[in-house]
Amino acid sequence: MDLLAITAQLSIANGTVLNEGTVPGLVARPAPPKAARGREHDFLFAHLTLTGPADETAELAGELIEALGKRFFAATGSVTSALRRAVIDTNDQLLRRNLAAKTTREGALSCAVLHGNELFTLQVGEGLAFLGHNFGIERLPARPPQHLTPLGRSAGIDIRFAYHQLQNGDMMLFCDPRLAHLSGESLSDVLVDTEIESGLDELLDIVAGDTARLMLVEFADELPSTLPLTFQHSRQPAPKPAPPPKPAAPKKEVGAPAVAQATAKAHPATAASAAPPVESPAANDGTATLEIGARRVASTSARGLSRFTAWLAAAIGRLSARPADEPSVHWAIPAAIALIVPIVIAAVVTSVYVQRDTVADVARIKQQMMDEMLAADNVGGGSAEAQPHYLAVVALAAEAEALRPDDLEVAGMRADALDALDRLDGVTRLTAGVLYEYEDGADLARIALRGGAGGIAVLDRLANRVMFHATDDTYRTLTGEQPSTIGFGGQAVGAQTMGELFDVIWLAGSASETRDSFAMLDRAGSLFNYFPNLGDVGGVALPNSSGWDSPTAMATYLDRLYVLDAGAGQIWKYYISSGYTQFAGDEAIFFSENAGLDGAVDFDLYAEDGSLVVLYGDGRLRYYDTRSGRVRWDETTLAQGGLATPLVAPVAVKMVGSGLNASIFVLDPGSGRLLQLGRGGTVLTQYRVMDASGDEVLTQATDFAVTESPLGVLVVAGDRIYLAENN
Length: 727
Known about the structure:
By secondary structure, this protein is an alpha+beta fold. The protein is built from twelve helices and 37 strands. The chain has three domains: about 5-245 and about 255-270, PPM-type phosphatase domain (Phosphatase 2c, domain 1), CATH 3.60.40; about 330-425; about 430-725, 7 Propeller (Methylamine Dehydrogenase, Chain H).
């Protein structure tokens, strides 16, 4: 439920209501017509108090608060990040002014943003606010901070965040630090179970004889039919900034004024310019009193319950009243109603309590996320010390999304944390578009590119089939509307029958079979070749396949086919030119010591010298010299070569290019990254891939293929094929 805000600003000097328009240093502003993305429905409140006489600081306070509003509504991202950046820039603006001016001004700032029914609060220095609920009043901050750095003193400031879920009728008071002696008990008549008009009357009584600049806010689900002209609400355009105040003549001593009189005297010019024909003061007081009474009745009545009770009473009355000319009602009908009604009420009450618990949990998690973001800023957002805080934000976002999916603020803070992690890790973002989506559902597990001529083959585990997509030679444009099936489970090919397929690769022609093909391998050890030039399929049973334990992946080098058998801890070797035979003593790749292949998930070989890279599901990565069987480098080398965040749950590895342009690409859905490594174990680039809606693609990916000149990445995830490129 979206709430609206009704605001009233008030400036008092020694018990006198000053003759001012909008109070300098205070702002209550809806989004301008050309607000940044994500800011269109936000409403900003801000209260800035500067050191020094009010008449000397009014112009500067107005400039700062105006600049703060412009910066916030021009910033993209989450509410918290936009508000934080706006406050930091405003602090820099005041600091530069203080360095150049003779008189230093420091500030106490309280900001808040209404986003739907959520309130995000930020405070700096001695900023003070009170938030009233139907159960009591919260002081913001709850306790005086241990370290206070006012606005404009230094480049680093202490920022305090708070997050609240608002209810209809909640109230908020922004006030000067000089009113820090006020307590929740003394403000109960202002902020609890009241409306803004009567609350303002009570506030005038409380601050009688004092000097203060105040802003009172009521959060409501509907706009009252009448409001004093000096009040503002979030469904009207923002007022123009006020000019510096003129010397004010005393207008009225604050005692127990009527609301209409206080607000009219505070803004006589505005009231006169928009006033209707003159009415008697008694009539004005009567209208205000009537409006206040009506709103109190509306805010405290249980409309839904009363309507339901009325319906229930009418239903029972109709059942019990039986005129002589009407047939009697069977006893089962009222019995059923008597049974169903308590069940419905119990279900509604239970759902309300469950929803309240969910709201409370999400609010708690959001507060923790804001605290972690603030902690990261305090240690220096670009330093390695900030990384654990950003990782904590990502983990908390996952908890919040499990409770409330598609929460925009959670997604915004998670995006901010990921952006910061990207900067720390040197990550480049790619933008992905959907190249093809299977409308009948699919679980795409592998992808292979046809060499030279264009064309993509994908393995669908769900239907146990391999589909071929015709493309141009850049692999970026589909040339056929629908893919064709080139292999499926149960298909008979000569003496072989396709079983459960687990991998597909592009296989260049050899001496024994000169035609290029897509090679498809099933777990029984049967290899099937689809030849695109004629569209025919051949099949052969690989030797020793009856002894396979857990075949996982295959690759090729020269005229040899290699199969990773994680269960047996071997990478089997087959000579294509000899009809996929094995030679005695050379059945598998030799390792000088146990390679621990039982945890391997993928591998590949370098096309020029046959060196081997093996990827493990627990994040290990080993690069082997196949002639000696020794490890050239491993994951510890990567950590020394620039990999700040280790691999989490990688699934695929490819070797792309040759010579100086050769690279190793590793897909790690666990961290949502695609790593590009040099053959020497150095980190070249790390990529993240985002779709058009800003969601991560690689976190759901199962395989990929890389195209060169220009760089493009084809990714399979779920039932989609994505094409990712540089922005």
